[in-house]
Amino acid sequence: MDTPVSLWTRISEALSSLARGEGLATVFDRLRTPPERSVAFTIAVIALGAKLAKADGQVTRDEVAAFRQVFTIQPEEEGNAARVFNLARSDVAGFDAWARRIAVMFGPGAEVLKDLLEGLFLIALADGEYHPAEDAFLAEVARVFGLSDACFRSIRARLVPGAEPDPWMVLGVAAGTPLPDVRKAWRALVRETHPDRAAARGLPPEVVKLAERRLIAVNRAWEMISGRRGG
Question: pTM of the full predicted structure?
């Protein structure tokens, strides 16, 4: 029986095609449907993450290691993972080109793009700082992804340390919004964020873990608002 080809090996093969001169569009067109779509998602995280790691002018060991927060890398896969990162880092395409291709693949504003943006935030925060250049990078990626400014600010409020996340911002509603409308926004986010939906989209288990974290933050924000207002 043939040994199943690992995710990282398939990713490495796809990036090797890029290194041989195949266009980004050509490679991504081969990865439009599950299970290859999870390969495309992972490549996008790595490529954008490699470029994000340089956004503040330096690539730290912590930022490289941050991929372990998004992806579980088995010891036997570390060689492939390192090759993938180095290929992506040396790719001449700008980060906006990668962002545009992944947006086309999943559709502007798709839930999976929120997952990807959240993974990039984790990489940006891995060295313990959130640099203005990283903020500008992530804001532009969000724009290319077709995500609203409110969505971007909601993710930033949940993940960037330094202050208690604003529950209104986490839920994407204006402060003082009537409680029934807040409840409606909360329920919509719970449906969108549920880990089962990430799994159904054929995404890696690590992305499901991101969804679990996001769901906890969304529920906590609702509890804070409804508790304050007697809801």
Answer: 0.65
Residue 133 CA: distances (Å) to CA of 49, 51, 53 = 14, 12, 10
* Ordered domains of the chain (ranges, CATH): 1-158 (1.10.3680), 164-231 (1.10.287)
As a residue count, the chain comes to 231
* Look-up of token digits 């490549």: 43
pLDDT digits (tens, 9 = 90+) for 90-149: 665 678 887 887 788 778 888 778 878 887 887 787 777 788 888 899 999 999 999 988
Distance, in Å, from the CA atom of 231 to the CA atom of 227, rounded to the nearest integer, reads: 6
b/e map 189-205, b = 16+ CB within 10 Å:
beeebbbeebeebebbe
In angstroms, the first-to-last Cα distance of the chain is: 59
| Residue 5 DSSP one-character state | P
Q: Count of alpha carbons within 13 Å of 205, Cβ hemisphere only?
A: 4
Q: What angle do CA 145, 98, 8 make, to 5 degrees?
A: 115
Name residue 169's amino acid.
Answer: M
Neighbours of 139 (CB within 10 A): 16
* 172 vs 151: CA distance, rounded Å: 7
Which of 32-36, 69-73, 212-216 has the weakest average pLDDT?
69-73
